[in-house]
Amino acid sequence: MGKTTIALSVAHRLHSNPQLLLATFFCSRESVDRKNPGLIFPTIACQLASWNHEFQDILVEVLAHYPYVGSALPHEQFQKLIVEPLEKLNPPTTVALVIDALDECDGERASEKILLALLQHVHSTPSLKVFVSCRPAAYVEDLLSSGEHRRMFKLHHVPTGIVNDDLRLYYRQRLEGIRVAKKLGSTDWLTEELIEKLVEQAAGLFIFAVTVCKYIDSRGDARRQLEHITSLTKGKYDNALSIDMLYTEVLSAALQKIPDSRDCRDFARVLASVVHAQQPLTINALGQLLGVEPSIVYDLLRDVHSILFVPNEFGALSDEVVHIFHASFPDYMTARNRVGEKVPSIYINPQSHQLEMSLCCLRCLNRELKRILPLSKDPSPLDTDQCHLLQTHISKALSYAIIYWADHFSSTVPDELRDEGDPLLEELQQFASGKLLFWFECICLLNASGIVIRILVKGKNSLMSLLSARGLYRHPTLQLLEDAYHAANEFFPILQAAYAKHIYLTFLLFLPQETSLYRHYSHYLPPDWKVTGQQRRTWNPLVRSLGLSPFSDTVTFSPDERNILDVDYYMASANILSSVQLAISQILPESSVFSAWDYEKIPGVDAPFPKTDSNNLQPGMVSTIWLPSGKIVSCCTLLSDIEMPHRCYCYVSLWDSETGAHIRLLHKTMEGTNMFLPVIKSSPDFRYVGYSNPSVQLFWDTETWDEIIFLSSHTRFYRCFAVSNSHYLVGNEIRDVSRESPLLSNLDIEPQQVASCVFSWDGQVIVLGLISGFVEVWRVASSSEMVANLQLSSIADYSGALPLPSLASSPRSNFIVVCFGTELYLLLIADDGIACAGYCRSPYSAHLRAVAYSLGGQFVACRDNNGLVHVWSAEAIFDPTVDLNTSRDESTPGSTSCLTYMADSRLCLSGAHDGTLSIWECDTGSLVQTWAAQINVIAVSASSDGRFIASSGLEETRIWSLPKMDCPDSKLKPQLELIIAAPPETIGFIPAICAVTFSSDSTMLAIVTGFIVDIWKLTESKWQRYTLLKTSLTRFVPNDDAPVADDFIQGSSSLLRALRFNYQWLAHFYHKLHVRPPFYLRQRISEAEYEKSLQQCRSAFEWWKLSEANSTIANTSHSQLYFSLDELANHEMILQPWEDDKSKELEVKYFWKTKKEYYRRNGIFKTLHPIFNHRPNWIADTEGRLCFWVPESHFRGTWLWYSCASDGDRFALISRDDSNLIFVHVPGTGTTE
């Protein structure tokens, strides 16, 4: 009896018990929903809720608190949706779950993840009983062979006699039902001899019995078919399984009814397509893909109902799909020594058919893909019924081709293609050059954004392999697919949100204009829509910037390259493209951080990991490795206790990434020393994990997790540590990875000068990153020698914090990526040399601290000193067409800090950090006029009558008068009218001057600081002070001083927060470098005093210190004020900017009245404005309609008041990575009608 039959029987028996709550899920590889592991636990929870109202109420509360749980990992779904609601039921209720055919779930290790999630919780939930069936697998044996509350029953261990009795019973009942249905006589229908013959032929395979009965029940003479099956002898199929005998007879009989050779060929094609299809297809979809009439497909399959599910004539017209009954049939069809010998006319070489399926998919795409949404200047979200669009414009065949063309293409081998005029490459060229944009639109409509990157990576990599086999490395089709890949990374939020209309708006609008994709598809933009200014010419290598925990010194990719590991006070995975975070480990309740750490506590198990928190006085650092097996290794180092002497704790743990379970503690130590930062690395093949601290070097075998090396450290420079598949470096010693760990050679280096080191992927060389800015390449041999070096930049170039280089090796080639200071370098290690193959800069000019390659080499990621993790496309860094050097033309102004539109909206005024003011012609992006205004410009404003402009620097504001313009490109000669010094009490405030703005009638000017608004009025052609509004606040400097030991005593009047690890401490304490204080301390502390403070254990971190009495000051400053139509309007902050009653009365008198004033043309929210909070980077009009989305390559982070400006259908912004000006013109939007 089969496992599904048993599961059904168990479910029926449990259902009859009124004291049980029953829920079931029957997996099936033939159903898109039933093979989706992410639907198992939500479906079960829904069933339980339908049976029990109390469970339903609890589940509703869970969904309200955890709306993301539908897309969470299996173990979190099971815990939140099932276990926790069950624990709250009163009285407790016994629940039985039946999950069948778990092995038919789709996805890597999917069934194992489900089983792990069940085992993790079932022992602690006595009221929960679970029945699971699946095919035999090694992981099933491992998980169920030991442990409490689990029992395994193997069907193939059932005695033969019992199996044969079940087969006899099945044959009698099923064949008798066929006889009655076909109205046959009972004479000689089913004798005992026939039954025994059938049982013998089945050889214990229940699927054989099922297929026999289906064959006998098919059209034709049932009695003759029964006799034919029982007359077959085993000798005819000596070298075949019993099921092969049956498949051969069914296919041979079907062929006899298809006399036409062309129909026979189509029959073989249809069968091969059913076997090789990525998901089951309908009769119509099969016909459309293969170019065969659906009616013919139906006729060809009429005689194979016993081995395939074929819809009847009514079902063939609906959405019922053709699918196999058993996994043995594809094995039979794809084996040359089985079907190829028995029914050779049916056999098609799998690779040849993959080529045909690929060609069929591309022909379908080129034939059916077209623009679905009409040309419209209305950029609002799609209001048409999406289901209607799918039914009308996207057939089942087209939907299949859209999703799976690359899967079939990637299975094509170069030998199957012709050198010239190959139809597959011609179809691919036609698709890439004419249909890609429509394909992206359909991806949106199908909500398939989650797989778009996978499709394009498969497509372009497969084409690259095919071309390289012919000696070609550049091709127009390949360039288009690479552009499509970069575009999918860049515009993923558009695809994810399914804004199909914006494929023709935002997507095209912000495509780099020198890319092949833009040249082929820009004509689909609405008329006159364009982007000008200092726009990127080609793709930005930067894919995303993620705000993750600052308490880590590594960047760790998931094995599938989709996520980055984040460890705050629990483990989570952050999706690279969507930025969505999902919990991996459990979230532990918060505990007091003032108490000394208990050495027996394990971080993440008995207490939370170190976290970013205002009460956290015991921070730490966590390093991680995510192995291809799904295991995670964490190394958590906690800062020493507050009391003397200093102590530091380190824990190395092993976790399961699928369930979040803590598997084991690999190592723990306590050092009677200051904070230290151990190093944990894996070998390139992930066979070994190595760990180095000041006292010891340890290695584990990742197959058994046995400790294979425990070596007392021979050097205090433990951070000079790298691991290859056979060797490791510690200090200047190269040793063998073995239990004896013999010394192989010594490098002639000073380990204290090495900030980072890594072996090449093949282990032949080791690359060192020195604190001096040099990269050295050493050959690994018995007599190690340096073969090349390269100077990146000098530490003398850095006047602030000293940079420390970090290195990572490509997993598949001799590329090394290095971050040093604000630069990221891609280096190629040649035979005896080293060369720079790519280069880019850090966003925001932040120092890069740690670098990593993803497992497949698709991404490179770095942490910076602001706590962000930046992810670059490795391909884009190397691609010579990518704009790596973002330096500007010397004739253009410096880094832009602020901008505003002028009275003539074709002109824009900008200010720069170098003190220049510039006027730009927006339609062309050309510079009209630039002049030196003051030392620094951080805010500008232009009067509505075109007469004045105002600029604010650090300590003063200047008003300039402008002559009248006869034409937009006339040379303007601004005249300085007035210099207004900032009030003395605001000097030293951060920042000294926030903003300036003119009133709508151009007669008043407001100059805003954090706590003073200085208002000036124009009277008789002269500017005079009108009023000065003040709050009770007089000063706010967040980092007032370096924390000292007394600050950490409980009850101190200071509030402290550990911001991040202090790499200056590492540079001074470990590398013995002289370091400078951070900028906010340079006026208050000398270099000697700062270096002395770094000797304190607490100075391994950067701290935020603030008097408790002033803890709310940060929320009391204005960012900008705007004149209303009458007087002034305030840009609302989260809290009221001014707290005392008198100031509040003044604000109501002079400033904002209602929120509607946000949308007035003279405020920050002009006609086109950013949408704050819930839809980042979207620009909307006054009605709230989404006009376009600004890619993260142009703007990242929170919109600031000075970063954008708007007038009518024009919008300007500052690109925050390089401070370039971008002008957007979108005619037809931004109107108030």
Automatic annotation (TrEMBL):
Record flagged with keyword Repeat = yes
Q: Which UniProt keywords apply?
A: Repeat, WD repeat
Q: Where are the WD repeats?
A: 889-930
Record carries keyword Repeat: yes
| InterPro entries cross-referenced by the UniProt entry | NPHP3-like_N, P-loop_NTPase, Quinoprotein_ADH-like_sf, WD40/YVTN_repeat-like_dom_sf, WD40_rpt
Tell me the Pfam families matching this sequence.
Answer: NPHP3_N (PF24883)
SUPFAM superfamilies per UniProt: Quinoprotein alcohol dehydrogenase-like (SSF50998)
The segment(s) forming the Nephrocystin 3-like N-terminal domain are 1-135
Mind telling me which PANTHER family this protein's record contains? AMELOGENIN, FUNGAL STAND N-TERMINAL GOODBYE DOMAIN-CONTAINING PROTEIN-RELATED
The protein's name is: Nephrocystin 3-like N-terminal domain-containing protein
